[in-house]
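Example for tutorial group B:
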C-alpha cells in the first residue's frame, strides 16, 4: 500500500549531525520512506496514523507501509519463553537494521525497558499520548465493581492481575493471549471469560471504543509504563529519517515517557514484572511520577509519588525509592504473563 507525504521544516532531537545513509537504506527515490510494522489490525492502524501525520507535514514524501508477522504475534503462550516483550519488535528491528524499512512504529509498551534499543537504532520520536487508562469490557455493560464474585476476567498482564487482587480480590483473572480483536472474539464466543481488561487507547485505535463499558481510573489501576504512547524508531545514522520522525515528536510525551522508562530500566522491569507507573506534567511544568510495584496476590504494595523538573532525575529517584522499600526482592519473585 503506498501513499504520498511532504517535507516541511525539519529538526533533530539530537544536537549532533550525522552523515545520511543511502546505500544501506536502499532508497532509489530520496523522497521514499518505508515504514515497518507488525501486521495486526492495531499495528496497521498505528502505521496509518503516522502516515496521515507525515502526509499533513511532508506531502512530497512517498510513504510505503511494509507489515510483517512477529514471533510475539504467532506465539500464544507465556511471553517470557520468547524473551519477553522484545518478541513483538525483533523482526521489525531486524528489517530496520537490514535496510528493508526506514522507520518502525511501536507501542512503547512493546519496547523492552530492561535494555537499550538495538545497536544502530534510536527511538527518535514519541507521538502525543493517547488515553492511558485500562478498561473493562463486559457484554452486559457492567462496571468492574458490579461484577459478581468469581467472575472470570481475561488478562495475562501481571500488572493488571496484581491490581485486580488489590482492589477486587473476589474476581478471577484468567490468562488470555492474542491481539485485541481476537480477545474480543473469544469474549463474544463465551470462551471461559465473563469480561476482559484491555487498554482504552488500543480499542480506540481499532475502532472498537464502543465496547468499553468501564474506563478504570488511574488511581485504582495505575497504567503500564508507556501506556497510550507510540514511538518511532529509525537507524541512528539515517539523518533524513530522523528529521522526518522528529517533526512528529511531542515534547510533553517525550518527557513523561523518559521518566517512566528511566525508572523501568533501573528496576530492570520486563514483561513479567508487576510494575505500574504514570508520569504527568503539572501546570507549573514539573513532572510528577507515581509508580507501584505489587505482589501478584495484592498483599504487598510499594507506592512512590515524586516530582522533579528533569525526567531522568525523576525516574532515577522514584526507582531508588522503590528499591529502598524492597522492590528488588518483590520483583525477583516468580511470575507469569506480561506487564
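The residue assignment follows.
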Amino acid at each position: 500500500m503506498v501513499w504520498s507525504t511532504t517535507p516541511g521544516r525539519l529538526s533533530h532531537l539530537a544536537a549532533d549531525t550525522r552523515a545520511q545513509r543511502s546505500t544501506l537504506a536502499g532508497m532509489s527515490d530520496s523522497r521514499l520512506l518505508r515504514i515497518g510494522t507488525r501486521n495486526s489490525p492495531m499495528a496497521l492502524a498505528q502505521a496509518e496514523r503516522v502516515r496521515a501525520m507525515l502526509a499533513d507535514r511532508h506531502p512530497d514524501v512517498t510513504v510505503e507501509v511494509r507489515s510483517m508477522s512477529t514471533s510475539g504475534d504467532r506465539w500464544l503462550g507465556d511471553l517470557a519463553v520468547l524473551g519477553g516483550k522484545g518478541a513483538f519488535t525483533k523482526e521489525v528491528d531486524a528489517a530496520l537494521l537490514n535496510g528493508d524499512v526506514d522507520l518502525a512504529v511501536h507501542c512503547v509498551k512493546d519496547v523492552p525497558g530492561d535494555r537499550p534499543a538495538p545497536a544502530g537504532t534510536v527511538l527518535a520520536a514519541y507521538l502525543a499520548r493517547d488515553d492511558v487508562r485500562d478498561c473493562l469490557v463486559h457484554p452486559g455493560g457492567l462496571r468492574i465493581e458490579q461484577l459478581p464474585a468469581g467472575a472470570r476476567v481475561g488478562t495475562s498482564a501481571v500488572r493488571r492481575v496484581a491490581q485486580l487482587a488489590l482492589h477486587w480480590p473476589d474476581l478471577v483473572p484468567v490468562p488470555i493471549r492474542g491481539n485485541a480483536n481476537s480477545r474480543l472474539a473469544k469474549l463474544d464466543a463465551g470462551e471461559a471469560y465473563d469480561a476482559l481488561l484491555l487498554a482504552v487507547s488500543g480499542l480506540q485505535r481499532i475502532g472498537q471504543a464502543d465496547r468499553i463499558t468501564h474506563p478504570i481510573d488511574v488511581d485504582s489501576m495505575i497504567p503500564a509504563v508507556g501506556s497510550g504512547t507510540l514511538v518511532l524508531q529509525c537507524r541512528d545514522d539515517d539523518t533524513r529519517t530522523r528529521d522526518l520522525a522528529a517533526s512528529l515528536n511531542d515534547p510533553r510525551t517525550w518527557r513523561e515517557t523518559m521518566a517512566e522508562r528511566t525508572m523501568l530500566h533501573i528496576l530492570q522491569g520486563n514483561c513479567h514484572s508487576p510494575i505500574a507507573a504514570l508520569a504527568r506534567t503539572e501546570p507549573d511544568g514539573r513532572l510528577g511520577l507515581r509508580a507501584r510495584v505489587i505482589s501478584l496476590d495484592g498483599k504487598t504494595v510499594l507506592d512512590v509519588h515524586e516530582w522533579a523538573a528533569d525526567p531522568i532525575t525523576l525516574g532515577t529517584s522514584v526507582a531508588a525509592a522503590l528499591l529502598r522499600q524492597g522492590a528488588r526482592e518483590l520483583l525477583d519473585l516468580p511470575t507469569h504473563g506480561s506487564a
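The two ends are 33 Å apart (CA to CA). Compare this with the pattern of hydrophobic and polar residues in the output above.
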